[in-house]
């Protein structure tokens, strides 16, 4: 769904990918914009998942209470802010695209970490497809009518 939206609309997208192929998981962040009708990467950063505070495993007790201390490396936020100030229009939202499979990246509060630094509205691209409703609406209505005759033993007292 995110790819479809990026092709259809002129969005500024912060795309985040988790690479688990290496010994230490790596996070790749890119800025994508539509060029020639296709999304193109115009800036990118890579860093280790540990640098962000992303755990190897989720601790149930820790996730319930205090939580985790996530941080986006300052070299990423500073460069991203510079790029947005130079290349984007103020008040144009930055769309977050988490590329599947994104593992624990979904629990990172991206908007809370980035928005105060970047000072731009942030939105997430959906990662699901909703089928549009059909043009025809079919309905059914079932009803039953029961008529009961009053017997001579029933009184007409109202309770």
Count of helical segments?
5
> In what range is the share of β-strand residues?
15-25%
Number of strands: 5
Strand count, sense and barrel status of the largest sheet are: 5 strands, mixed
Domain count: the total is: 1
Unreliable stretches covering 5 or more consecutive residues: none
How are the elements arranged and paired?
Layout lengths: L1 H7 L3 E8 L6 E10 L2 E11 H4 L7 H5 L9 H14 L6 E5 L11 H9 L3 E3 L35
Parallel strand pairs: 1-4, 4-5
Antiparallel strand pairs: 1-2, 2-3
Structure description:
With 159 residues, the protein is of the alpha/beta class. It has a single domain (2-124), classed as Nucleotidyltransferase, domain 5, CATH 3.30.420. The chain contains 5 helices and 5 strands; from the N terminus they run H-E-E-E-H-H-H-E-H-E. It has a 5-stranded mixed sheet. A hairpin with a 6-residue loop joins strand 1 (12-19) and strand 2. The mean pLDDT is 85.
Keywords:
single chain, 159 residues, alpha/beta, Nucleotidyltransferase, domain 5, 5-stranded mixed β-sheet, 5 helices
Short recap of the structure:
The protein is an alpha/beta fold. The chain has five helices and five strands; from the N terminus they run αβββαααβαβ. It has a five-stranded mixed β-sheet with strand order 3-2-1-4-5.
């Amino acid at each position: 769904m995110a790819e479809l939206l990026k092709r259809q609309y002129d969005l500024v997208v912060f795309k985040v990918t988790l690479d688990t192929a290496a010994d230490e998981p790596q996070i790749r962040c890119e800025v994508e914009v539509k060029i020639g009708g296709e999304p193109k990467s115009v800036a990118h950063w890579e860093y280790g998942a540990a640098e962000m505070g992303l755990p190897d495993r989720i601790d149930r007790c820790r996730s319930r209470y205090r939580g985790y201390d996530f941080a986006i490396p300052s070299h990423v936020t500073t460069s991203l802010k510079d790029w947005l100030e130079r290349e984007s229009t103020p008040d144009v939202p930055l769309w977050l695209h988490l590329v599947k499979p994104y593992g624990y990246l979904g629990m990172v509060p991206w908007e809370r970490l980035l928005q105060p630094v970047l000072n731009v509205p942030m939105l997430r691209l959906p990662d699901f497809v909703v089928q549009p409703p059909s043009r025809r609406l079919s309905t059914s209505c079932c009803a039953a009518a029961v008529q009961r005759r009053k017997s001579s033993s029933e009184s007409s007292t109202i309770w």
